[in-house]
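Worked problem 6 (solution included).
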Amino acid sequence: MHRLQDKVAIITGAGQGIGQVYAERMGEEGAKVVVAEVNPARGEAVAERLHSRGQDTLAVATDVSSEESVKAMVEAALREYGRIDILVNNAAIFHTIKMKPFEEISLLEWQQLMAVNVTGVFLCCKWVIPVMKKQNRGKVINISSGVVFGGRPFYLHYVTSKAGIIGLTRGLAREVGDWNINVNTITPGPVVTEVPRETVSPEQAKALLAQKCFKRAQVPADLVGALMFLASDESDYITGQLINVDGGLAMH
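Solution. The predicted structure is:
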Protein backbone atom coordinates (compact mmCIF):
# COMPACT_ATOMS: atom_id res chain seq x y z
CA MET A 1 0.00 0.00 0.00
CA HIS A 2 0.93 3.67 -0.42
CA ARG A 3 3.03 3.02 -3.51
CA LEU A 4 1.77 6.34 -4.87
CA GLN A 5 2.12 8.40 -1.70
CA ASP A 6 1.72 12.12 -2.52
CA LYS A 7 1.79 11.50 -6.28
CA VAL A 8 -0.71 13.54 -8.27
CA ALA A 9 -2.76 11.41 -10.65
CA ILE A 10 -5.22 12.60 -13.28
CA ILE A 11 -7.79 9.99 -14.30
CA THR A 12 -10.11 10.86 -17.16
CA GLY A 13 -13.57 9.32 -17.26
CA ALA A 14 -13.32 8.62 -13.53
CA GLY A 15 -16.97 9.30 -12.71
CA GLN A 16 -18.18 5.73 -13.17
CA GLY A 17 -17.26 2.19 -14.15
CA ILE A 18 -13.61 1.27 -14.47
CA GLY A 19 -12.41 4.85 -14.06
CA GLN A 20 -14.10 5.14 -10.69
CA VAL A 21 -12.38 1.97 -9.48
CA TYR A 22 -9.04 3.33 -10.72
CA ALA A 23 -9.61 6.54 -8.75
CA GLU A 24 -10.55 4.69 -5.58
CA ARG A 25 -7.53 2.40 -5.73
CA MET A 26 -5.07 5.18 -6.49
CA GLY A 27 -6.48 7.12 -3.55
CA GLU A 28 -5.95 4.09 -1.33
CA GLU A 29 -2.34 3.97 -2.51
CA GLY A 30 -1.78 7.55 -1.33
CA ALA A 31 -2.22 9.48 -4.57
CA LYS A 32 -3.87 12.87 -4.81
CA VAL A 33 -6.52 12.07 -7.41
CA VAL A 34 -7.88 14.46 -10.02
CA VAL A 35 -11.25 13.08 -11.11
CA ALA A 36 -11.61 14.40 -14.68
CA GLU A 37 -15.17 13.62 -15.72
CA VAL A 38 -17.48 15.05 -18.38
CA ASN A 39 -20.50 14.59 -16.09
CA PRO A 40 -19.93 17.03 -13.19
CA ALA A 41 -22.37 15.30 -10.82
CA ARG A 42 -20.70 11.92 -11.27
CA GLY A 43 -17.24 13.40 -10.85
CA GLU A 44 -18.23 15.21 -7.67
CA ALA A 45 -19.83 12.04 -6.30
CA VAL A 46 -16.61 10.06 -6.75
CA ALA A 47 -14.57 12.89 -5.21
CA GLU A 48 -16.93 12.99 -2.23
CA ARG A 49 -16.52 9.24 -1.76
CA LEU A 50 -12.74 9.57 -1.74
CA HIS A 51 -12.89 12.55 0.63
CA SER A 52 -15.04 10.52 3.03
CA ARG A 53 -12.20 8.00 3.20
CA GLY A 54 -9.66 10.67 4.03
CA GLN A 55 -8.19 10.77 0.54
CA ASP A 56 -7.08 13.98 -1.17
CA THR A 57 -9.01 14.50 -4.41
CA LEU A 58 -10.22 17.15 -6.83
CA ALA A 59 -13.14 16.82 -9.25
CA VAL A 60 -12.85 18.78 -12.48
CA ALA A 61 -15.57 18.78 -15.14
CA THR A 62 -13.64 17.82 -18.27
CA ASP A 63 -14.57 17.18 -21.89
CA VAL A 64 -11.45 15.51 -23.27
CA SER A 65 -12.52 16.26 -26.84
CA SER A 66 -12.19 20.00 -26.12
CA GLU A 67 -8.69 21.45 -25.96
CA GLU A 68 -9.95 24.39 -23.92
CA SER A 69 -11.50 22.02 -21.38
CA VAL A 70 -8.39 19.86 -21.14
CA LYS A 71 -6.18 22.92 -20.70
CA ALA A 72 -8.46 24.17 -17.91
CA MET A 73 -8.35 20.76 -16.23
CA VAL A 74 -4.54 20.73 -16.22
CA GLU A 75 -4.43 24.29 -14.89
CA ALA A 76 -6.85 23.34 -12.09
CA ALA A 77 -4.69 20.37 -11.13
CA LEU A 78 -1.58 22.55 -11.01
CA ARG A 79 -3.31 25.23 -8.94
CA GLU A 80 -4.40 22.62 -6.42
CA TYR A 81 -1.32 20.41 -6.28
CA GLY A 82 1.54 22.09 -8.15
CA ARG A 83 2.55 19.03 -10.13
CA ILE A 84 1.24 16.08 -12.17
CA ASP A 85 2.92 12.69 -11.84
CA ILE A 86 0.47 10.28 -13.46
CA LEU A 87 -2.01 10.55 -16.33
CA VAL A 88 -4.52 7.76 -16.92
CA ASN A 89 -6.28 8.23 -20.24
CA ASN A 90 -9.41 6.23 -19.52
CA ALA A 91 -12.25 8.37 -20.93
CA ALA A 92 -13.93 6.86 -23.98
CA ILE A 93 -17.23 6.50 -25.76
CA PHE A 94 -18.22 2.87 -25.36
CA HIS A 95 -21.36 1.91 -23.47
CA THR A 96 -23.61 4.10 -25.65
CA ILE A 97 -22.48 2.47 -28.91
CA LYS A 98 -25.16 0.76 -30.98
CA MET A 99 -23.80 -2.27 -32.81
CA LYS A 100 -24.19 -1.95 -36.59
CA PRO A 101 -22.45 -2.80 -39.89
CA PHE A 102 -19.76 -0.27 -40.68
CA GLU A 103 -21.68 1.11 -43.70
CA GLU A 104 -24.37 2.28 -41.29
CA ILE A 105 -21.98 4.30 -39.11
CA SER A 106 -22.52 7.94 -40.01
CA LEU A 107 -19.58 10.27 -40.50
CA LEU A 108 -20.78 12.34 -37.55
CA GLU A 109 -20.90 9.28 -35.27
CA TRP A 110 -17.41 8.27 -36.43
CA GLN A 111 -16.03 11.76 -35.79
CA GLN A 112 -17.66 12.11 -32.37
CA LEU A 113 -16.21 8.82 -31.17
CA MET A 114 -12.75 9.60 -32.52
CA ALA A 115 -12.87 13.04 -30.89
CA VAL A 116 -13.14 11.42 -27.46
CA ASN A 117 -11.35 8.09 -27.85
CA VAL A 118 -8.31 9.26 -29.82
CA THR A 119 -8.16 13.06 -29.93
CA GLY A 120 -8.98 13.17 -26.22
CA VAL A 121 -5.91 11.07 -25.41
CA PHE A 122 -3.77 13.26 -27.68
CA LEU A 123 -5.02 16.47 -26.02
CA CYS A 124 -4.47 15.20 -22.49
CA CYS A 125 -0.93 14.14 -23.39
CA LYS A 126 -0.32 17.46 -25.16
CA TRP A 127 -1.14 19.47 -22.04
CA VAL A 128 0.13 17.15 -19.30
CA ILE A 129 3.45 16.00 -20.72
CA PRO A 130 5.04 19.50 -20.76
CA VAL A 131 4.45 19.54 -17.00
CA MET A 132 6.10 16.13 -16.69
CA LYS A 133 9.03 17.31 -18.79
CA LYS A 134 9.69 20.13 -16.32
CA GLN A 135 9.65 17.54 -13.54
CA ASN A 136 11.88 15.22 -15.62
CA ARG A 137 9.56 12.36 -14.73
CA GLY A 138 6.04 11.09 -15.31
CA LYS A 139 3.79 8.12 -16.03
CA VAL A 140 1.23 8.03 -18.84
CA ILE A 141 -1.11 5.04 -18.92
CA ASN A 142 -3.43 4.73 -21.89
CA ILE A 143 -6.43 2.43 -21.82
CA SER A 144 -6.94 0.62 -25.12
CA SER A 145 -8.98 -2.59 -25.48
CA GLY A 146 -8.41 -6.27 -26.12
CA VAL A 147 -10.94 -5.96 -28.93
CA VAL A 148 -8.09 -4.93 -31.23
CA PHE A 149 -6.67 -8.46 -31.14
CA GLY A 150 -9.83 -10.16 -32.35
CA GLY A 151 -11.27 -7.41 -34.50
CA ARG A 152 -14.86 -7.94 -33.39
CA PRO A 153 -17.36 -6.72 -35.99
CA PHE A 154 -20.13 -4.12 -35.87
CA TYR A 155 -18.41 -1.27 -34.06
CA LEU A 156 -15.58 -0.48 -36.41
CA HIS A 157 -15.13 3.07 -35.13
CA TYR A 158 -14.47 1.80 -31.60
CA VAL A 159 -12.08 -0.96 -32.69
CA THR A 160 -10.18 1.51 -34.88
CA SER A 161 -9.95 4.08 -32.10
CA LYS A 162 -8.52 1.58 -29.63
CA ALA A 163 -5.98 0.35 -32.17
CA GLY A 164 -4.94 3.97 -32.63
CA ILE A 165 -4.17 4.27 -28.93
CA ILE A 166 -1.55 1.54 -29.23
CA GLY A 167 0.18 3.40 -32.05
CA LEU A 168 0.01 6.65 -30.09
CA THR A 169 1.58 4.94 -27.08
CA ARG A 170 4.52 3.58 -29.04
CA GLY A 171 5.22 6.77 -30.96
CA LEU A 172 4.93 8.98 -27.89
CA ALA A 173 7.18 6.73 -25.80
CA ARG A 174 9.94 7.29 -28.37
CA GLU A 175 9.54 11.06 -28.08
CA VAL A 176 9.54 11.52 -24.32
CA GLY A 177 12.01 8.95 -23.01
CA ASP A 178 14.72 11.58 -22.61
CA TRP A 179 12.62 13.14 -19.86
CA ASN A 180 12.11 9.84 -17.98
CA ILE A 181 8.45 9.75 -18.94
CA ASN A 182 6.92 6.31 -19.30
CA VAL A 183 4.07 5.76 -21.76
CA ASN A 184 2.31 2.39 -21.71
CA THR A 185 -1.04 0.83 -22.61
CA ILE A 186 -3.42 -1.57 -20.89
CA THR A 187 -5.81 -3.62 -23.02
CA PRO A 188 -8.71 -4.86 -20.89
CA GLY A 189 -10.94 -7.69 -22.00
CA PRO A 190 -14.75 -7.39 -21.68
CA VAL A 191 -15.35 -5.90 -18.23
CA VAL A 192 -18.59 -6.10 -16.27
CA THR A 193 -19.44 -2.78 -14.55
CA GLU A 194 -22.55 -1.05 -13.27
CA VAL A 195 -22.84 0.77 -16.61
CA PRO A 196 -25.31 -0.91 -19.01
CA ARG A 197 -24.19 -1.49 -22.60
CA GLU A 198 -25.28 -3.14 -25.81
CA THR A 199 -21.90 -4.11 -27.25
CA VAL A 200 -21.98 -7.70 -25.99
CA SER A 201 -25.05 -9.91 -26.15
CA PRO A 202 -25.60 -12.61 -23.49
CA GLU A 203 -24.73 -15.24 -26.12
CA GLN A 204 -21.50 -13.44 -27.03
CA ALA A 205 -20.55 -13.01 -23.39
CA LYS A 206 -21.00 -16.74 -22.81
CA ALA A 207 -18.88 -17.58 -25.86
CA LEU A 208 -16.09 -15.23 -24.79
CA LEU A 209 -16.12 -16.69 -21.30
CA ALA A 210 -15.64 -20.18 -22.71
CA GLN A 211 -12.48 -19.04 -24.54
CA LYS A 212 -10.75 -17.70 -21.43
CA CYS A 213 -8.24 -19.51 -19.25
CA PHE A 214 -10.08 -18.16 -16.20
CA LYS A 215 -13.75 -19.01 -16.59
CA ARG A 216 -15.30 -16.02 -14.85
CA ALA A 217 -16.42 -12.56 -15.83
CA GLN A 218 -13.82 -9.80 -15.70
CA VAL A 219 -14.49 -6.97 -13.23
CA PRO A 220 -12.75 -3.59 -12.80
CA ALA A 221 -10.75 -4.85 -9.82
CA ASP A 222 -8.95 -7.23 -12.18
CA LEU A 223 -7.31 -4.23 -13.86
CA VAL A 224 -5.97 -2.33 -10.88
CA GLY A 225 -2.89 -4.52 -10.43
CA ALA A 226 -1.57 -3.70 -13.89
CA LEU A 227 -2.55 -0.05 -13.44
CA MET A 228 -0.75 0.27 -10.12
CA PHE A 229 2.35 -1.42 -11.49
CA LEU A 230 2.55 0.98 -14.43
CA ALA A 231 1.86 4.00 -12.21
CA SER A 232 4.45 3.07 -9.58
CA ASP A 233 8.23 3.22 -9.47
CA GLU A 234 8.31 -0.53 -10.08
CA SER A 235 7.81 0.04 -13.83
CA ASP A 236 10.41 2.79 -14.27
CA TYR A 237 12.29 0.89 -17.01
CA ILE A 238 9.20 -0.12 -18.98
CA THR A 239 7.84 2.10 -21.74
CA GLY A 240 6.09 1.79 -25.09
CA GLN A 241 4.61 -1.51 -23.97
CA LEU A 242 1.19 -3.14 -23.89
CA ILE A 243 -0.15 -5.20 -20.98
CA ASN A 244 -3.14 -7.34 -21.88
CA VAL A 245 -5.46 -8.10 -18.97
CA ASP A 246 -8.30 -10.39 -20.02
CA GLY A 247 -8.05 -13.69 -18.14
CA GLY A 248 -6.31 -15.40 -21.05
CA LEU A 249 -8.82 -14.58 -23.77
CA ALA A 250 -6.13 -13.26 -26.13
CA MET A 251 -2.50 -14.34 -25.91
CA HIS A 252 -0.39 -11.32 -26.83
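Discussion: Residues 8-245 form a domain with the Rossmann fold fold (CATH 3.40.50.720).
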